[in-house]
Amino acid sequence: MNRRRFLAHSLALGGGSLLTGASSSLSQPSAPKPVNPPQTSSAGSSHFPDGFLWGLATASYQVEGAWNEDGKGESIWDRFTHTVGKIKGGATGDIACDQYHLYPQDIAILQRLNQKSYRFSISWPRIQPTGTGAANQKGLDHYSKFVDTLLEAGIRPFCTLYHWDLSQALEDRGGWPNRDLAGYFADYAGILAKNLGDRVTVWAPFNMPWSFTNLGYGTGIFPPGRANYADFLKAAHTVNLAQGEAFRALKAASSKATVGSAYGMAPAYPKTASERDRAATERYHAMHNIYFLETAVHGRYPKAFVGETPYETMGYRAGDDRIMKVPLDWIGFHYYTRRIVSDAGDAFRPGAGGSLATETADTAGGADRDTQTGAVMPTEGPLTDGGLEVWPRGIYDLVMQISREYNHPIIEITESGCGYLDSPYDKAGGRVPDTRRISFFRDELAELARAIADGAKVRAFHAWSLVDNFEWADGYTQRYGLTYVDYRDQKRTVKDSGLWYGKLAASNRLDHDS
Ligand code: BGC
Ligand code: BGC
């Protein structure tokens, strides 16, 4: 299917039966809308607002390498990847893209591609090797030089405080289910703001908090590899407290600090128009998309559970609402793919649903006991090599939903991207013709432009990723970069998608056909 037909197809489906009648705010108004609504002011192209922040994103463990240099402490990802059998191909992030040493090259690529924002994360164990106590000056010096180099290149540093590399020493003290980590995290945030806050103004405490708490403590797919649903609930509550505490610590140490988020979100659509599937979709949204947003904005948990919110299991204490509640300056979230959700209550009824009734937790594609939802990623759109469905329309629906539900906040898209395995087509490594990635971004960004035209206050878009990098449990078997990395010699080759994205950043104009 060519791109145009695919887009029309996705719009038709998106506006069709999956959504009609749903109570979720992803439902369509009943008045008929054109199936392929005009996306643009001028035919064939979209203009982004002046000053729109085009950016690229990475995360410390995925790109830095230098895992034990300059006083850095061991992280849970170091421990996990050094354990046999956890990662495809036995890969580790020991060297990764060696960005710790090669960052001037990477920042030069950002500059060459006319980027205005670089979203990177700081490795907590570089700053505090055991997670608490005095700061490691060498770690601070590294990020200080790093930030200066970005600013000299005219690029806004967007700093994520935590992209999953917890100090192993803190895990040994109980990890995120231990409520004390909220205070330690706030101390760390204060150190960063004190040392970098004269230059960094944009901060996000946590990358994808649902994922690292659920996959790390609920299902054990990620480090520390614990699989206990109660631990997930506790970890998530600590992180909600930590988000609030970090917000205050950043603001206290830096008057210029603005604080937002980097949540992972997937627009959720009910499988059928039934009341049960629509309610399940609301619960899915509450658990997967806004479990760390509703707590910040309103100081309360969203209605994610069938029955009462399990406050006791979470370790919730009186007054926690006031710790969690903070006026985020903007809301950041990622978009990769969508979910179709159905009620899974039957599967959990003893005697009725078989094995699910005894399972403790879910994965993103499975069924979840406490929310009693089943979620699948459909395969109507083409799949990336990374296995995710390409569904451009999803970003429009998600951005509009969050805009409506949270009173039209300033939004940053903190990540979006696709895994494709294209490699240089000659030995000299001249070009990487990754045309599918160009189509992915072109179609998605047309949908984002449409959301902006319809009033969403989106000010930034960060493509994942600046460079191919360590893709967690998949090791180096996936390539999400707009720049190719040859891991044998660390040579970077900007892919065709990177060149395309660089032109877009310079012109602010998206041509739908090129
Ligand atoms: C709704 C939000 C609401 C939240 C908490 C969500 O499903 O869409 O508007 O704030 O639940 O109840
Ligand atoms: C994560 C990245 C990851 C990317 C691609 C995002 O959700 O934040 O760390 O590499 O997805 O899977």
TrEMBL record:
Entry annotated with the keyword Lipoprotein: no
Protein origin, superkingdom: Bacteria
Key word Transcription regulation present: no
SUPFAM superfamilies assigned to the protein according to its UniProt record, in alphabetical order: (Trans)glycosidases (SSF51445)
Matching Gene3D superfamilies: Glycosidases (3.20.20.80)
Residue segments, region Disordered: 23-45, 352-382
Cellular component terms per the entry's GO annotation: cytosol
UniProt GO MF annotations: beta-glucosidase activity
Gene Ontology terms: biological process: carbohydrate catabolic process
InterPro entries linked: GH, GH_1_N_CS, Glyco_hydro_1
Biased composition (Low complexity): 357-366
Keywords: Glycosidase, Hydrolase, Signal
Signal sequence annotation: 1-22
Family classification: Belongs to the glycosyl hydrolase 1 family.
Protein name as catalogued: Beta-glucosidase
